[in-house]
Design brief:
9-stranded antiparallel β-sheet; Beta-galactosidase, Chain A, domain 5; mainly beta; binds 6-O-phosphono-beta-D-glucopyranose; about 300 residues
Length: about 300
């Protein structure tokens, strides 16, 4: 039986939720609500698309994204977990951790009384994941599709020793043109500028884009907005349990080298990542749960 057939027999909800194998070994959940639609891959519990009704897509997915077991998807909401960026001590381990390229299982799917649809995924741990991350824990990604998209990444320490957790909802947002886009809500925060030797700088005013941009903003406040005069909307991002915000656009040369952006894909995306990274990583005590929650909303001008 294919994974989609199995999931359809356990979790399908007429008019709201169905499953489909879109490539060999690659299954997705298709969510339809009166508020909008979404597609979520079982690999990585990865939100691939979300479009609020009557609005342009909120989430960018590369036309050249590859859907294959073990490959990360260019676009959507990759989960960086349990570390962000390069591993602190072992350069052989995958950048941004392994959560985005391993299978997750669907633990629950339901229509809420207010007609939103909620999917709850749990990371499947194997010998291979334990070899990279020896700490006893669970990870859940709870995805709620409604007039806004909500993600909750919950990590519980089920062992006897504390551990350090780095993470990000590495969300690719769809925009009209990066060169005309600005981001507010980060003014007066310090950031680590990864395209300038990781120099620490202070942000003055709104963030705008004229070149490759790769920054980790520190001590951020859980509210920022992407202003998009080309699509005629702003995207409002609110969060809790997050103290860092990563802002990334590869610009043309780097995007060309990455191979899965196409020629001008980089102009139509910006990553604004709800995160706990660098000095904002979480120390998780035995028995404790950390919840990082983000909501994304499209507001027309
Ligand atoms: O190509 P990846 O592994 O998905 O990473 C994309 C980018 O992700 C961002 O979060 C990082 O700050 C960048 O340095 C990185 O290039």
């Amino acid at each position: 039986m294919s994974t989609a057939t199995e999931l359809n027999s356990r979790f399908a909800i007429a008019d709201f939720l169905g499953f489909e194998d879109i490539a060999e070994g690659f299954t997705v959940a298709n969510v339809t609500t009166r508020f909008g639609t979404a597609r979520v891959a079982l690999q990585g519990a990865h939100v691939m698309t979300y479009q609020p009704a009557g609005h342009p897509p909120l989430i960018w997915l590369s036309k050249f994204a590859k859907f294959a077991p073990g490959k990360s998807i260019r676009g959507g909401v990759p989960l960086c977990w349990p570390w962000f960026g390069a591993h602190a001590t072992d350069a052989k381990l995958p950048g941004h951790g392994f959560a985005r390229t391993v299978p997750w299982q669907l633990a629950d799917a339901r229509v809420l009384p207010d007609h939103r649809v909620r999917l709850e995924f749990e990371l499947i741990q194997t010998e291979a994941t334990r070899a990279q991350w020896p700490h006893a824990c669970t990870a859940r990604n709870i995805v709620t599709v409604g007039p806004e998209l909500e993600l909750e990444l919950a990590t519980t320490n089920t062992g006897n020793a504390p551990f350090e957790l780095g993470q990000a909802l590495h969300t690719y947002f769809e925009i009209g043109d990066i060169r005309k886009t600005t981001i507010t809500g980060l003014a007066n925060c310090d950031f680590i500028d990864k395209v300038d030797g990781s120099a620490r700088k202070a942000q003055h005013g709104a963030v705008s884009f004229t070149q490759e941009t790769d920054r980790v903003y520190l001590g951020t406040h859980g509210h920022c907005e992407i202003h998009d005069p080309v699509l005629g909307r702003r995207i409002v991002i609110t969060s809790t349990g997050s103290r860092s915000t990563v802002v990334w656009n590869p610009w043309n040369e780097k995007a060309d080298k990455m191979g899965d952006f196409g020629t001008d894909g980089w102009t139509a995306m910006v990553c604004v990542e709800t995160a706990n990274a660098v000095e904002d990583v979480i120390q998780l005590a035995p028995g404790a749960t950390h919840r990082m929650v983000a909501q994304y909303r499209s507001v027309k001008y």
